[in-house]
Amino acid sequence: MLQHFKFKPMFEDSRLPGWNISFFYRNERIRGEYHPDGSIVWQSAPPQDEEAIKKMVHELMLYHVYD
């Protein structure tokens, strides 16, 4: 489960191209860039179970950003 999930726009304008995301997974801090097409560019080492994590991040972004 992801803990302390945070996101913020990449630019002050808050329009696309994406968001900076960060969260903890298994006591490891993970950072990345979430793009409008759902792709993620990891700024830290990719997490274990990367595909499952991408799905969780996508669901959270749909809930918080695209509601």
TrEMBL record:
Stored Pfam families: DUF5342
InterPro entries in UniProt: UCP037692 (IPR017263)
Protein name (Swiss-Prot/TrEMBL): YheE family protein
